[in-house]
Design a protein that fits this description.
The structure is a single chain. This protein is mainly alpha-helical. It is 62% helix and 0% strand. The protein contains 5 helices and no strands. The longest helix is centred in the middle third of the chain and has 27 residues. It is elongated.
Length: 136
C-alpha cells in the first residue's frame, strides 16, 4: 500500500461551476461535489490557518505595544501572514478543484516552508541589512 493515497483525477460533471476550468494534476481523498465548494471538508479546514494567522498578528502587535522584543513580534507577524496565505490559497484550491487553484495552493505552502530558512539565515547572519528588510 502506498504511503500517500492519491487518486485518479476525475473531471467534474458538465454544468458544474468549475467544470470548464483546467483540472489539477493530483486528486486527494475527498470526493468532489458539483458545487462552488467541491471539497467542503478540505475547504473549511483551511479557516483554522486564517484564524490562527490573524491571532498571531494580533498577538505580535499586542506584545510590541507592551514593550516586548521587536524581533519576536516581527517573526510572529511574518509567520501569521504566511499562515493566512496558506489558508486562503489552499481554501481556493479545495473549493475550486482547478489547476489554477492548485498552483496558488503550492505557492502558499512553499512560502510557509521558506520562512524558517529565512529566519535561520538571519539568525546565522547570512543575510545583510539590505536583504533583511526584504525577508521580513
Amino acid at each position: 500500500m502506498p504511503l500517500l493515497s492519491v487518486h485518479k483525477v476525475t473531471p467534474l460533471e458538465p454544468g458544474c461551476p468549475w467544470a470548464e476550468w483546467t483540472r489539477p494534476n493530483i486528486k486527494w481523498c475527498e470526493e468532489n461535489l458539483c458545487s462552488y465548494i467541491t471539497t467542503p471538508a478540505n475547504t473549511w479546514s483551511n479557516l483554522s490557518y486564517i484564524v490562527f494567522g490573524i491571532w498571531m498578528i494580533y498577538d505580535a502587535s499586542k506584545r510590541k505595544s507592551q514593550g516586548g522584543k521587536k524581533e519576536g513580534s516581527r517573526t510572529l507577524t511574518t509567520i501569521g501572514f504566511a499562515s493566512i496565505m496558506v489558508g486562503v490559497t489552499s481554501l481556493i484550491y479545495h473549493a475550486s478543484y482547478t489547476a489554477q487553484g492548485q498552483f496558488l495552493d503550492f505557492v502558499g505552502m512553499y512560502m510557509f516552508a521558506v520562512i524558517p530558512v529565512i529566519l535561520n539565515l538571519r539568525r546565522l547572519r547570512f543575510l545583510t541589512k539590505k536583504t533583511e528588510n526584504i525577508a521580513g
